[in-house]
Amino acid sequence: MVTGKRNYILLSIFDFLYLFAWSSTMAFFVIWTTQHLGISATQTGWLYAINAFIALTMQPFFGFISDKFGTKKSLIFWIIALLLPVGPFFIYVYAPLLVSSFWLGAILGGIYLGVIFNSGCGVIDSYIDKISRRYAFEYGRVRMWGSLGWAAAAYIVGRNINDNPNLSFWLASIAIVLAGICFMMTKITVTLEEEKMTSSLKAGHVFELMKDKQFWMLIIFTLFVTQIYDTYDQQFAQYFSLQFPSVDEGNKWYGTLASIQVCGETLFLGLMPWFVNRVGAKWALVIAGTIMSVRILGSAVPLGPVWIAAVKMMHAIEKPLILISVFKFIAQNFDHKLSSTIYLLVLFAASIATTVYSPMVGHFYDTIGFANTYIILGVISGLFTLFSAFSLRSRKDKVIDHAQNTASLA
């Protein structure tokens, strides 16, 4: 089998299993904490904030180290090793501590989840992006299998969380064992040119990046568009379940809806590289921001569960747009040897925003309600999307053409 095709297949399975594990543990996190552990929306907001705060202390370091490793496998293997006990951690450590000693559990969980998911996802995504450019396949067409893994886990967990919430955590650990096996089977050659590039990377290159206006414009988009949206989405499952006569019924329907939505996301992840290459990364980001703002505001309209479900399905278009266009925007506007650093710095900014937004928005949910909070968030997101339409740079001509890299397939 040609090396590029082999790596595409194995990394697709790996991403499927990694996102399966992440979804198993976090897709119903708010339902697990509020309905099974008896934690309030405000406390759950603090959990998201603490997870994000601890992650943000790690992300710049992870980004730089990831670029220093390049396409070497060592850092990914380290993340896999930490992921293996994720199931027992949730069942025997995290849950008891959150109930008996909330702040201790929140800090310990924040450290662990910050490494394996909040920071680890950035390392894994940027690594797959590097390999896709090396072996001439699109990152988005690997990531679509990851979304399918998320959908599969959401469906299974949604059907079982009321009766057996611990099942999801055991499934997560099993998925990581299989993911590790798949990653071991990849064949990735580190070239002499890459060795030189990674060895020449210095901390000073990161400080030079701070002088680039486009870097800050991307950070502003992240802070006031994508993270406003992600904060809105954190407790959406709880809001959706409240649209039904009982929360148990709402949880089951949310599991089904989340699975359908992520299947749609998978389809669009396969199509979006073509679309982003045509319109350019800047305008893809703006379009994604517009969809996000419309979805947030649409959720505030009290038209019942069918309407809320329809609004939820907009995520199937927005998420692929963001995932693909962020990497392409970075590739178009910055030095490739800093690609992981830039992406993790974007996640660093996102973590800062989540740390600030989550407890505040969680408090708003408890005091002024979901709908009024959504109106505030939607207006902020919409205004900064408009700002980004003028501030982000359009360099459509710089989009990487993977078809020109076929020599690297051998």
UniProtKB/TrEMBL annotation:
Which compartments is it annotated to reside in? Cell inner membrane
Glycoprotein as UniProt keyword: no
* Record field: transmembrane: 7-33, 45-63, 75-95, 101-121, 167-190, 215-232, 252-276, 283-301, 342-365, 371-392
* InterPro entries assigned: LacY/RafB_perm_fam, MFS_trans_sf
For this UniProt record, give its keywords in alphabetical order, as a comma-separated list: Cell inner membrane, Cell membrane, Membrane, Transmembrane, Transmembrane helix, Transport
Supply the source organism for this entry: Leclercia barmai
Topology of the protein relative to the lipid bilayer: Multi-pass membrane protein
Tell me which stretches of the chain form a coiled coil.
Answer: none
Q: Name one Pfam family in it.
A: LacY_symp
Name the domain of life. Answer: Bacteria
Under what name is this protein listed? Oligosaccharide MFS transporter
